[in-house]
Amino acid sequence: MKSLDEHNVEQENLEQEQVNEKKSGYVRIKKFHFILILFFLVLLSTGITAFALSFGDEKVITVGTERSEFDKLYTAYDTLKSGYFEELDQKKLINGAIDGMVKALDDPYTDYMSVEEAEQFHSSINSSFQGIGAEIQEKDGHIMIVSPIKGSPAERAGLRPNDIITSVDGKSLQGMTSTEAVMIIRGKKGTKVELTIQRPGSDTPVKVPIIRDDIPIETVYGDMEGDGIAKVQITSFSTNTSKDLAEKLNELQKQGMKGLVLDLRQNPGGLLDEAISISSMFVPKGKLILKVEDRNGKTEEYPSQNDGDPNFPLVVLIDKGSASASEILAGAVSESAGVKLVGETTFGKGTVQTAKDFPDNSNIKFTTAKWLTPKGNWIHKKGIKPDIEVPLPEYATLPIINPDKELKLSSSSSEVESAQKMLKAIGFDPGREDGFFDEKTQEAVISFQTANGLPADGVLKGDATFKLMEKLREMIQANDTQLLKAIEVLKEEMK
Q1: Greater pLDDT, 200 or 211
Q2: What DSSP assignment string belongs to 42-82?
């Protein structure tokens, strides 16, 4: 009986233990699920918080960065975004911030370009484009012409280095960057643009209408001048300039070239690599072409890769429109090859720029270093002085005349004065040069018009004005005192 009772008790205890085990097992399972749920909720909460911090409105731009120098910029942005009375264009604000940062450098060669501006920047280096054909730069808050491109509408209109463009179609360019000005000046072929030009030495601005045209990037021109002397002009340093120059020199050598005048006048520069390649054609192998110095004073030297001295004498023509890469070439041949320089002191641009594209294809062009001549001279804002200084005739720098303006009997202006000096230079002396259009001036105009097949009405306007300036250019070319001196010097070298 006892044993039975003990068995029953043991059985009851066993059953109770089984029940307890089932209960405790159930509780353990619930705790495990609960922990997993809590872990998941913590992760989810963390992700939502990070997302909110990344894209919310409260100072979100500063999260994840310790660049405290930008705190003021971010605060200004947030202030405008939350308080400005109109809805803001975020892209425009960011572009403006970058542009303002670049302008604060006060460097005319450092520029921020929008997508459209960057596209035009690349096209001007690599292909043809449409516009007036002039290299410009910002200087002291003004837009100044560095040089017109050979054969361009700008050259035909009489624009010259150092002319200041004060407005375009009545819109002032004061305070604009060169890139901003280019966007306004350029346009489709056949369209008209009116520039207001202030020429140094003239008190009165002149309005100059120009018809835009295709501006091909043809950079090398050359022909024989007689007596075995060739003249080659490089108008800019573009993608294929060194290749085109080599071909032109080979062509001229077949025509009997024994000496070369290399004309770099009104050449605004271009690509550094092209300047080095071309300089290597005339500088003996191993001799320096230039040095490039970074902001830490570290200097990198660029020696010539040529196999030896050129086998013909060389003289180089320079003027105040010769800039940048032109000055690299002039400095290299002068200091490393003993080549004579003839003409006028160059423009004086001694810095190197590079361009960086952003993901949206906008662009920043900025100064990275300064370059020095082989002897270590920094020519920035000073230029390179010629060995033999030769000015052009006085009439070569006469102010241009607005062809839309009517110059006639009894009118008086600075443009009449320019016209009188032009008429005298090409052989139609008006008897005075004081700006008053009298009967003798009228007679000179009539004689000029008759000689050139124009209506002889004694009035200078339109075609008559264009023809007058064209004849003056022909006179300047025929009496190119700088070229004539260079040929004279070259003949001495060839003896």
Answers
A1: 211
A2: HHHHHHHHHHHHHHSSSSGGGTT---GGGHHHHHHHHHHHH
Written as one string, the DSSP assignment of 434-465 is SSB--HHHHHHHHHHHHHTT---SS-B-THHH
What b/e string do you get for 173-198 counting C-beta neighbours within 10 Å, with b at 16 or more?
beebbbbbbbbbbbbeeeeebebbbb
Q: In sequence order, which ranges of 56-175 are alpha helices (DSSP H)?
A: 71-83, 90-103, 115-126, 153-156
**3-state secondary structure at position 485:** helix
Among 335, 344, 415, 417, the one annotated catalytic? 335
Residue 193 has pLDDT above 70, yes or no: yes
Q: What's the whole-number average pLDDT of the chain? A: 84
Pairing of strands 388-389, 340-343: parallel
Out of 202, 236, 280, 324, which one is annotated catalytic?
Answer: 324
Exposure of 180 in the CB half-sphere (CA atoms within 13 A): 19
pLDDT at 58: 40
Q: Are strands 351-357 and 363-372 parallel, antiparallel or unpaired?
A: antiparallel
Q: Which listed residue (231, 340, 349, 471) is catalytic?
A: 349
pLDDT at 19: 35
Residue 393 phi, psi (nearest 5): -55, 155
Contacts of 202 (CB under 8 A, 6+ apart): 399, 414
Q: Which residue has the higher pLDDT, 487 or 202?
A: 487
What's the rounded mean pLDDT across residues 153-174?
90
Of 299, 301, 288, 294, which is closest to residue 332 (Cα–Cα)? Answer: 288
178 and 136 in contact (C-beta within 8 Å)?
Answer: yes
Predicted confidence (pLDDT) per residue in 123-136, tens digit: 555 545 788 988 88
In whole angstroms, give the CA distance from residue 169 to residue 195: 6
Pairwise CA distance, residues 238 & 256, whole Å: 28
Instruction: List pLDDT tens digits, range 420-439.
Output: 999 999 999 999 999 999 99
- pLDDT score of 181 more than 50: yes
Exposure string of 71-109, with b = 16+ CB inside 10 Å and e = fewer, is eeeeeebbeeeeeeeeeeeeeeeebeeebeebeeeeebb
Q: Using CA atoms, how far apart are residues 12 and 16, in angstroms rounded to an integer?
A: 6
pLDDT in tens, 378-412: 999 999 999 999 999 999 888 888 888 899 999 99
Catalytic residue status for 335: yes
Residue 390 tokens, joined: 């030769």
Average pLDDT on 358-364 reads 89
Rg over alpha carbons for the chain, rounded to the nearest Å, is 37
> Among this protein's residues, is 324 annotated catalytic?
yes
**274: annotated active-site residue:** no
